[in-house]
Design a protein that fits this description.
The complex is a heterodimer of chains A (about 625) and B (about 80). With about 625 residues, chain A is an alpha+beta fold. Helix content of chain A is about 40%, strand content about 15%. Classes of the chains: A alpha+beta (about 625), B alpha+beta (about 80).
């Protein structure tokens, strides 16, 4: 077995209770690197793209990368791969913290979960001891209680737990999987798929280590990359000081922050919910994942009166006064997109989302769509139970709980904004792609993001092609966000690079400080595989294309690469990007050409052959 | 008006009145040290300068003319990022 891997796959069939230890496909580990790519390859082989996401036939994969659990900076990631409950597309949601490394230390590279249990269970892994345990006493509990109870009852206080909360149990279509209390494989409803299998948690304790092909070379490469990260103002200081929320003011200044369900693109209260304000008023400390030298995580507090202001009821589950967050995307979705400028409400709602196991981006964006329905008098108090006006902070916190428990109007919010808006006859209010809500960048004001959203395999996503980097931050070169020139090329490159980075087990945030070529020596030394920039970029393209092929089988390939009418036809009403619409149609043909696909976006036989996908 | 974002706020209030008829003039009057704004005499490559939300790279650079009501925003990112782009 090549280095960086244990060579072991756990296959857990919840229907039969069978647990098998299998050999990792080394050929796939080489070709697809690991993590996202390896998971996609296994799902391609074993999964049915046309199955209902909640069917026992849908498989749920937890996949590490070869650098997960190593000394490489930010080598903490694991990837959850499945058919998304929100989208019906292949989804690859990843998380940091300590769970992925712990799985490697226990002696496993990945877990394939199949079937559906007859009653709630959790998977217990302590090195060679692997068993399914009853979780009936945990069902209904939040993530935070679940982690604590498993640690206590197992007698292994150092175990690391990835679990679902009430949102996953109740099949909220944007439920996530949470580990280390606040680290989330958040998007596309991977938690709902886990809930549909009655799998409450996977608790892991491992005491092994990761074998490296060339330990001395690896350490040398690892220290070289750490030095580079230390030179970067972003990875050495910026992210640690302000977290991702530093983008709130930056994006708002560009007039690119979707506001009130994309009706506007400048938020008048951005400063109040910015990373700067968070740092000045509510930040306790920053926090790092396993082996991370960036430490972008936020630990925030709600002191004094603020702690009680947004209590939605008197249940102890809501008595929290400190937790993690806010990240930029979450603060945007529950803030600007809902017209809410009260920082404490966002902090509170974010904690609730973490404890309930729910994606704050899709939750906030779905609430924003509901608020537009309310403001336009399509729905009313008789249905919602409270005024869902833009800016209603109390409604935000209350609806977080109602959504997770599917209470009242929350039952409709739990379906996501595509289904919600269609139900009330206004699908044009859905702001997303392939069923998944947009993140925090207006595609009219940042043209490249529009192309990235439209072609993203897991639905609208900022993490698959972050052209904000050149278009707003000038990295690696400045590109005008208002124009389309060069955007097809940069989008393809970023998609392929991101696919590769996501497959190594490293965190994507490294790319703010170093390039793929600076990560490469660690990968080569760890695995012993002579990857080059060329082969790694081709692996990225292979992964992207395989995901595309999977979606084509699911009916979400060609013809699905589009944006809502609002972004294509309604000009931004005011601000620096006033008058702009997305020029997606100008970019798509060039993008398809660069990908080597047909004119209407179908992967060709030649491209499949070139990438070894035939 | 000059607006400072992120770490640049250590040098002064987030919004301040700074007069000047060009971007260069405003930066010269700003509280941010020159060594940070113009290391080696050139505009810091890690610094982004906006006029009314548009990067001066797509306007007239440091010579971009300013009217009294214009807003200049500066922030520092300092990353290198993706290769080959």
């Amino acid at each position: 077995m090549i280095g960086g891997w244990t060579g072991n796959v756990l296959r857990v069939n919840l229907s039969t209770g069978a647990i098998k230890k299998e050999a990792l496909r080394e050929d796939w580990a080489r070709e697809y690197v690991g993590g996202r790519g390896l998971g996609a390859r296994y799902l391609w082989e074993e999964g049915d793209p046309n199955v209902d996401p909640f069917s026992p036939k849908n498989k749920l994969l937890f996949v590490t990368g070869p650098l997960t659990g190593t000394n490489a900076s930010c080598g903490a990631r694991y990837m959850v791969v499945t058919k998304g409950a929100l989208t019906g597309a292949i989804t690859t949601s990843n998380s940091g913290g300590h769970w992925g490394p712990e799985l490697k230390f226990a002696g496993y590279d990945m877990i394939i979960v199949e079937g559906r249990a007859t009653h709630p269970v959790y998977l217990w892994i302590h090195n060679d001891q692997v068993e399914l345990r009853s979780a009936e006493h945990l069902w209904g509990k939040g993530v935070w209680d679940t982690e604590e109870l498993i640690r206590k009852e197992s007698g292994v206080p150092d175990c690391i737990v990835a679990s679902i909360g009430p949102a996953g149990e109740n099949l909220v279509r944007f439920a996530g999987i949470i580990n280390d209390l606040h680290r989330a494989a958040g998007r596309s409803g991977v938690g709902a798929v886990m809930g549909s299998k009655l799998l409450k948690a996977i608790a892991v304790r491992g005491t092994g280590s990761v074998r490296l092909a060339d330990a001395r070379g690896f350490m040398s490469a690892s220290w070289a990359m750490k030095a580079k990260l230390k030179e970067s103002a972003v990875t050495a200081e910026g992210l640690a000081t302000y977290g991702t929320a530093v983008l709130m003011n930056v994006i708002n200044e560009h007039g690119a922050i979707p506001t009130r369900n994309h009706l506007e693109s400048v938020f008048e209260k951005a400063e109040d919910i910015s990373g700067e304000t968070l740092a000045e008023t509510r930040l306790v400390a920053n926090k790092a994942c396993f082996a991370c030298t960036i430490a972008c995580g936020r630990v925030s507090k709600l002191p004094g009166e603020a702690a009680g202001k947004f209590l939605v009821n008197t249940h102890p589950r809501n008595w929290k006064i400190a937790g993690e967050g806010l990240e930029y995307e979450n603060a945007w979705a529950m803030g600007a997109d809902c017209g809410i400028g009260e920082l404490d409400a966002l902090i509170k709602a974010n904690w609730l989302c973490n404890d309930f196991g729910m994606d704050p981006i899709s939750f906030g964006a779905t609430l924003a769509a509901a608020m537009e329905l309310y403001e336009k008098e399509i729905i009313s108090n008789s249905l919602t139970g409270m005024p869902l006006r833009f800016g209603n902070a109390e409604a935000l916190v209350a609806m977080a709980e109602k959504t997770a428990y599917r209470e009242g109007f929350g039952d409709l919010l739990a379906e996501g904004s595509k289904r919600l808006t269609a139900r009330f006859g206004h699908p044009e209010f859905f702001m997303g792609v392939r069923g998944q809500e947009f993140p925090a960048y207006d595609a009219r004001a940042i043209q490249g993001m529009g192309l990235g959203y439209a072609t993203s395999n897991r639905g609208a996503c900022h993490l698959k092609s972050y052209t904000v980097s050149p278009e707003i931050l000038g990295i690696p070169k400045k590109m005008d966000p208002h124009t389309t020139e060069g955007k097809a090329e940069i989008t393809k490159i970023f998609q392929d690079i991101t696919s590769a980075v996501d497959s190594t087990g490293l965190c994507l945030f490294l790319t703010f400080g170093v390039g793929l070529e600076e990560m490469l020596p660690q990968l080569v030394a760890a695995t012993g595989v002579p990857y080059t920039m060329e082969t790694l970029m081709q692996a990225g393209e292979r992964i992207w294309t395989l995901e595309r092929l999977w979606n084509e089988r699911a009916g979400l390939g060609k013809g699905s690469d589009t944006l809502p009418k609002r972004l294509l036809e309604d000009p931004i009403p005011a601000g620096p990007a006033k008058g702009l619409v997305s020029k997606l149609g100008d970019m798509l043909p060039e993008y398809y050409r660069l990908r080597g696909w047909t004119e209407d976006g179908e992967v060709t036989a030649e491209k499949r052959k070139e990438l070894g996908l035939s | 008006m000059l607006k400072l974002l992120g770490g640049l706020r250590r040098f002064g209030a987030r919004e301040q009145s700074v007069s000047g008829t060009t971007v260069a003039a405003v930066l010269n009057e700003s509280p941010v040290p020159r060594v940070l704004l113009f290391p080696d005499g050139q505009l810091n490559g890690d610094l982004e300068v906006l006029v009314n939300g548009r990067n001066i790279a797509f306007l007239g650079g440091l010579d971009t003319p300013l009217a009294e009501e214009d807003r200049v925003t500066i922030f520092l990112h300092g990353a290198r990022g993706y290769p080959g782009g």
